[in-house]
Amino acid sequence: MPVLADLRRLATCLAALLTFGTAAPAQTSDLVSDTAFRVCADPANLPMSNEAGEGYENALAELFAAKLDRPVQYTWYPMATGFVRNTLLAGQCDVIVGYAQGEELVLNTNHYMTSAYTLVVPADGPLAEVTTLSDPALQGLEIGIVAGSPPATHMARNGLIGKARAYNLVVDRRVESPVLDMLDDLETGEIDAAIVWGPLAGPLVKSDHPDLAVIPLLEETLPPRLFFRITMGVRQGEKVWQRELNSLIRRNQEEIDALLRDAGVPLVNDMGDAPKDSG
User: Fold this and answer.
1) pLDDT tens for residues 114-139?
2) Which of 6, 85, 159, 188 has the fewest CB atoms lying closer than 10 Å?
3) At 247, is the secondary structure helix, strand, or coil?
4) What is the CATH number of domain 7-113+227-263?
5) Is the C-alpha dihedral spanning 161, 120, 267, 17 positive or negative?
6) Residues 6 or more apart whose Cβ sits within 8 Å of residue 116
7) How is the chain split into domains, by residue range?
8) Tens of pLDDT, residues 223-244
């Protein structure tokens, strides 16, 4: 999701797949609760989720639960290796609110959000007009990057990787917060810019770093892609539940978009090459 998310979600999915093996066999919808909206979530993963219910994925869970006329019920587990296996596949919960499209470990719903990696810079500095990693203004600068994430390839292609400062990818957010550290380092001038998954960067900058600007990287046309479609994840085989969630997404997309925009998430169109129309 990606986090998808942060692309931390994409790495989590891969790590879980390597640990657990192939996706679980097809299961029936009998495992899905009809008395609660049972959500698998990270207890310390702001701006997405936390135990206090302060993340935008918490808000999405409340929205969907209200549409289903059920209370939200959480199973908490850190978004690291074993997350899917110990929550969704163990039958402890029925949905992961944010999951990158195309991963085999879960059955994806239709996507409810498309977002992109962003360049984060001081809002009043000389980089505020940069929109692509090929811009000469970035040459020779120390740029923060989450190690192993797709933008690292683009940085290498543009000669930016030599002075890059790497931050850890898959972590337990209860004890380590690489993106928070990266934005703090940018605020204090220890690095010159940061490249961060938009659904992390936008809300964190909005809430804690008003002097920074978040610029979606929409002009990087060579692979790997820097935009991802985010879905909800359910157990393989639970097609009835998937269709029910798909219907909710389709019928409530405007409300979903408004919630995400209010949180600060930069939304882009499905091709990842322009901001999503707000009207």
Assistant:
1) 999 999 999 999 999 999 999 999 99
2) 188
3) helix
4) 3.40.190.10
5) positive
6) 198, 216, 217, 218, 226, 227, 228, 266, 268, 272
7) 7-113+227-263, 116-216
8) 999 999 999 999 999 999 999 9
